[in-house]
Design goal:
Protein name: Photosynthesis system II assembly factor Ycf48/Hcf136-like domain-containing protein
Signal peptide: 1-27
Strand order of the largest sheet: 1-59-58-57
Helix content: under 10%
Oligomer: single chain
Keywords: Signal
Shape: elongated
Length: 757
C-alpha cells in the first residue's frame, strides 16, 4: 500500500509538461516498479546500525534497507553501467558513509569509492579496469583493505585511496583470486583463494606459501573465513567441497555431509552470536552446521542458488539469503524456513508486455532467465503492483505475449505456446495441429545446425558460478551495442536451415523440427535436430480399449504474437503459425520457404513479419504475403511495425527506415536519426509510433502520425521497449524490470512532449 501511494504521489507531482526538442533533453527519470525479484549478490552491514544493509546486484545497482531487509530501495548505480556484478561491498567502521565496492564483468571492472553513503561514486584510478572478485578489510585495522582480482592480490593501507600489488607480478599461480581473508588479529596475515588452490602470506605479501595440504588439486576456492576468536581455525569452500583447518592452513581436512552436487559452495559464514553455527550457501541450497562443521543439514530446497548469507549480529534468528533469480529470502527462525523479502528490489529481464484489451489497467509481462521464479507476472493497476502468474509454464522463459479476440491470453515461450483462459489459474500448452502430425508422417525434417549464440547469464557464471541450466533457452545477444560497445539482449537469435528443396511437406515439416531441438546448455553451443524415432503401437488386450494417444505439444520457440482481425499469428522457430479459434489450434501460414520469423506486427488487416534479414507484408490478416525489398543500409532487422495505412517501419543497427510503397523507397523521419533500434510499436489509441534505441541512450521517441512529428523524453533508463498503458507510458528496461512514466494526465493518453531547445 505504501509503494502504491508513493508512486501515485510521485506521478502526480510531475503533471507540468517538460519541454524539449527532438534532440536530447533532460527530464525526470521514470520510476521503477518491479516485478520484484531477480539476481541478488552481496550483503554489507552498516557497523553502526544493524538494520541498515547494502545489497550488491548483477546489474550495477546497489540497494539499501533501513529495516533489516523488509523493504529495499535503489541507492545508486555504480559506474553508470548496467553490466557490473557487485560481489563485494566494504563499509568503513569508522565512517559508515565511506564505502568501497568491488565490481567485475568478465575481465573488466574496478573499485568504486563513495564518501556520501552511496549517493555518488568515483572509480579508483589504480584499480580501474580490474576484475575485482573479492574484497575485505582487516578487523584489527579497517584502513587496511585487500582485494583479489584476476591479476593478483592488491593491498591498501589508507582506506582504499591507493593500492599496490602484493602478490608476485606475472605470477603463474597467484592470480584469478576469487576469495581473500585477513587474520582478525594480525593484518599482515592474508589468505587468498584462487581458481587453483589457496595461498597465504604472513608478511603482507613479501612472501607467499601454498596451503593446499588436504585439498583436492585444481580446486577453485570460492570462500575463506577465519574464526574471529580462534584465528587458527580456517574454513575454505571450493568446487570440490568444504575444508577446515585447525592450524592456520598448514593442513586442511575435508568436511563431510554435503552432497557432491552441492559442493559449489559460494559463501561460508559463521553466526556471530554462536561461532559453532556455520552456514554454507551453495548452488543447491543452504546448509547449516551447529557443531563447527561436523554435521550439516540442508534447510532450503535444492533449487535455490545462494550467493551470500547474512546473520543479524543482534538477532541470530534473522537470516537473509541473496540468491539467483529469487532475490532476497528472509528467515526469522535461524534459517529453518524462508520467505521472499523483495519489496522494492527488482532485477528482472522483461522480454514482453501485453495490456489486457478487456481490462486496460491490467498488464501481463514475460521475463527470462528466472525459471520457476520468473515466467509471467500480472499487474491490475497499471504496473504498480505485481503478482506471479506462471502456474503451468514450468519455468519456461517467456518471449512474447498476445491476446485472442475473446480475451484469452496467449504466451509464447522458449518451448511452446500456452493459453490462459479468462478466470483460469493455470496456463495450458497448445498441442500440435493435425497438419504438423501429418508432416511428421510425411517427411523427416532436414537436420538443422543452429548458430552458436552467447547467453548473457554466463557473464555471471565464470568459474565461480553454477553452469546455466540446459532446461530453457535464455535470451541471446544481437549486434545492438551502446556507445561503449556493450551488447544488449533480445530474444534468441537462431539461424534456421532452409527446407529441403522441392519438398511439398517442407513448410509443415518445420513445425516438427521445432519440437526436436533442445535448449542451449551453455554459453556457446550448437543445437542440432535429432531424428524422431518411429512410434511403436502398444499391445492391445482383448476386450479392452486402447490407451489414448499422448498429446503432441508444439515445442518451438515463439518470438512474437499479434492479432489481426479475428486471426492470431505467431512468429516461431518453425515459421509463421496462425490460429482462428482463439489459439486452441495452430497451422502453418506465410511463405513456404520463409526463414525463421523473428518479429511480427499488425494494424487492422495489415501485418508485417520479419526474419533477421527479410520482411514480408500481408494486407489481409496473413492470408497472402509478398516480400518487401529491404533498405540498402540495413544489415540486420531488430524491430518492425506497420501503420493502418500500410506504411512499414523497419529498425536495425543502422537506424529506422519507413516505406509507403512496399519497399520500393525508404526514408528516415526527420529528427529520428538514431541507431541500434530495440523496438518500434504502433499505438492505435493516439496514432503514433513509439521507438526505443540503444544508440539514443535512455530516450523514448514518439512519432505523431501522419505528420511524423518527432518528440521524445529522457526516461533515465536503457530501454528494451515502451508501451502505452491507460493514461501513461510503461517501459521495460534491460535488467531492471518495468519503469513507469512519472506523469498521469487527464486525457485518454499522454500527449507528446515538445519544447524549444
Amino acid at each position: 500500500m505504501f509503494r502504491r501511494f508513493a508512486l501515485k504521489s510521485a506521478l502526480l507531482t510531475f503533471l507540468s509538461p517538460l519541454l524539449f526538442s527532438a534532440t536530447f533533453a533532460a527530464a525526470a527519470p521514470w520510476l521503477p516498479f518491479g516485478p520484484d525479484g531477480g539476481d541478488a549478490r552481496k550483503f554489507a552491514i552498516d557497523p553502526h546500525d544493524h538494520t541498515h544493509l547494502y545489497l550488491g546486484t548483477a546489474n550495477g545497482w546497489i540497494y539499501e534497507t533501513h529495516n533489516s531487509g523488509a523493504n529495499w530501495r535503489r541507492l545508486s548505480r555504480v559506474g553508470k553501467r548496467d553490466d557490473l556484478v557487485i560481489d563485494n561491498i566494504v563499509v568503513d567502521p569508522s565512517d559508515p558513509k565511506h564505502l568501497i565496492a568491488g565490481a567485475w564483468v568478465g575481465s573488466d571492472g574496478g573499485l568504486f569509492i563513495t564518501y556520501d553513503g552511496g549517493a555518488t561514486w568515483t572509480s579508483q584510478a589504480e584499480m580501474r579496469g580490474q576484475s575485482v572478485r573479492s574484497l575485505t578489510s582487516a578487523p584489527s585495522d579497517p584502513k587496511i583493505i585487500v582485494a583479489g582480482t584476476l591479476k593478483g592480490v592488491y593491498r591498501s593501507t589508507d582506506g582504499g585511496r591507493r593500492w599496490r600489488l602484493i602478490s608476485p607480478p606475472d605470477s603463474t599461480e597467484i592470480h584469478e583470486v576469487e576469495s581473500v581473508a585477513i587474520d582478525p588479529k594480525d593484518p599482515n596475515i592474508v589468505y587468498a583463494g584462487t581458481w587453483h588452490l589457496p595461498w597465504k602470506t604472513v608478511d603482507a605479501g613479501e612472501n607467499w606459501d601454498s596451503i593446499k595440504q588436504g585439498i583436492i588439486d585444481d580446486s577453485d576456492v570460492f570462500s575463506i573465513i577465519i574464526d574471529p576468536n580462534s584465528p587458527k581455525v580456517v574454513y575454505a569452500s571450493a568446487c570440490s567441497g568444504i575444508y577446515k583447518s585447525e592450524d592456520a592452513g598448514t593442513q586442511f581436512h575435508k568436511i563431510q555431509g554435503i552432497p557432491s552436487t552441492a559442493r559449489r559452495t559460494r559463501v561460508l559464514l559463521q553466526d556471530p552470536s554462536n561461532l559453532d553455527i556455520v552456514f554454507a550457501g551453495t548452488t543447491e541450497g543452504l546448509f547449516r552446521s551447529t557443531d563447527a562443521g561436523k554435521q550439516w543439514q540442508r534447510t532450503t530446497t535444492p533449487e535455490i542458488i545462494i550467493n551470500d548469507v547474512f546473520v543479524d549480529p543482534t538477532d541470530p534468528h534473522h537470516v537473509l539469503l541473496a540468491t539467483d533469480r529469487g532475490g532476497i529470502l528472509a528467515s526469522d527462525d535461524g534459517g529453518d524456513t524462508f520467505r521472499s523479502s523483495n519489496g522494492g528490489f527488482s532485477a528482472r529481464q522483461v522480454a514482453t508486455l501485453k495490456r489486457d484489451n478487456l481490462h486496460p489497467a491490467t498488464i501481463f509481462v514475460g521475463v527470462v532467465n528466472d525459471k520457476e521464479w520468473g515466467g509471467i507476472f500480472q499487474s491490475d493497476n497499471g504496473g504498480i503492483d505485481w503478482a506471479q502468474r506462471s502456474e503451468g509454464l514450468k519455468g519456461r522463459d517467456v518471449f512474447s505475449l498476445g491476446q485472442s479476440p475473446d480475451g484469452t491470453m496467449i504466451a509464447g515461450t522458449a518451448h511452446g505456446i500456452f493459453r490462459l483462459d479468462r478466470d483460469a489459474a493455470v496456463w495450458n500448452q497448445v498441442e500440435q495441429t493435425p497438419e504438423a502430425i501429418a508432416a511428421d508422417n510425411a517427411a523427416v525434417a532436414p537436420p538443422e545446425i543452429r548458430a552458436a549464440v552467447s547467453i548473457n547469464r554466463n557473464q555471471f557464471a565464470q568459474r565461480n558460478n553454477v553452469k546455466p541450466s540446459a532446461t530453457h533457452a535464455a535470451p541471446h545477444t544481437t549486434a545492438l551495442k551502446n556507445s561503449k560497445g556493450k551488447a544488449f539482449q533480445h530474444p534468441p537469435l537462431h539461424k534456421a536451415a532452409k527446407p529441403l528443396p522441392n519438398s511439398p511437406a517442407a513448410r509443415k515439416a518445420k513445425l516438427l523440427a521445432a519440437k526436436k531441438h533442445t535448449a542451449a546448455p551453455s554459453k556457446r553451443t550448437k543445437i542440432v535436430v535429432v531424428k524422431k524415432p518411429q512410434p511403436v503401437a502398444p499391445p492391445v488386450k482383448e476386450l479392452t480399449a486402447t490407451a489414448a494417444p499422448k498429446p503432441h505439444f508444439f515445442d518451438g520457440s515463439v518470438f512474437a504474437i499479434t492479432t489481426s482481425d479475428q486471426t492470431l499469428l505467431a512468429a516461431t522457430s518453425a515459421g509463421l503459425l496462425a490460429s482462428s479459434d482463439q489459439g486452441v489450434s495452430w497451422k502453418p501460414a506465410g511463405p513456404p520457404d520463409s526463414a525463421e520469423w523473428r518479429y511480427l506486427a499488425s494494424a487492422k488487416n495489415n501485418v508485417v513479419a520479419a526474419s533477421l534479414h527479410g520482411v514480408q507484408f500481408s494486407p489481409d490478416s496473413g492470408a497472402d504475403w509478398s516480400p518487401i525489398r529491404m533498405p540498402e543500409k540495413i544489415t540486420l532487422v531488430t524491430a518492425t511495425a506497420v501503420e493502418p495505412s500500410g506504411e512499414i517501419w523497419v529498425g536495425g543497427p543502422e537506424g529506422i527506415f519507413v516505406s509507403s510503397d512496399a519497399g520500393n523507397t525508404w526514408t528516415t523521419p526527420k529528427n529520428l536519426f538514431t541507431n541500434s533500434v530495440t523496438s518500434i510499436y504502433y499505438d492505435d489509441a493516439t496514432n503514433r509510433i513509439l521507438v526505443t534505441a540503444v544508440g539514443s541512450g535512455s530516450a523514448a521517441f514518439m512519432v505523431q502520425l501522419p505528420q511524423k512529428t518527432v518528440t521524445y523524453t529522457d526516461t533515465g533508463w536503457n530501454l528494451r521497449f515502451v508501451r502505452p498503458v491507460g493514461d501513461h507510458l510503461v517501459a521495460a528496461t534491460f535488467f531492471d524490470g518495468i519503469v513507469i512514466q512519472p506523469k498521469m494526465m487527464s486525457g485518454s493518453a499522454p500527449k507528446p512532449e515538445t519544447a524549444a531547445r
